[in-house]
Amino acid sequence: MKRNLKIALAGVGLIMATGIGAGLVMADGGAACGHGPQMMRGAWSGDIKSMAAGRLDRLHADLQLRPEQEAAWRDFSAAVGGQAANMTEKVKAWRENSAAATAVERLERAQKGMDDGRQALEQLTAATKRFYAALDKEQQGRFDELTKRMSPGNRGWTGGAGRGA
Q: Would you say residue 124 lies in a domain?
């Protein structure tokens, strides 16, 4: 694999992990992820928005929300969906511009990606707190269980304990 391609893939991975990774984690519906061992195929092909939408659909079904909770769900879902759409555009732009970028430009883009990712994570955290507050205790427990599968200390989609667990 060419060095530039490796750098580009590493950069995309970093941006995804910091920018929308949390959104996808929050939106993971708990059941099989639907992508099997190829779960990142959708992300690498630039189809992040539809991947997040599928996870949001599963999460919505698993939480069994009451009618009065739907407004909070719509806000949360819009926050995750908006980040997924933004990430789709960022991945596309990264791919189109990575071949001609200099080392300094790649580093600057990576820094901007990290800054953008932190901002996205702050927005997602705020949206999640608002949504979480609208859930009852049982739903909060289910939400916690459904969204911890890709959190630190867990191994990928298996839900098994990893380092620090």
A: yes
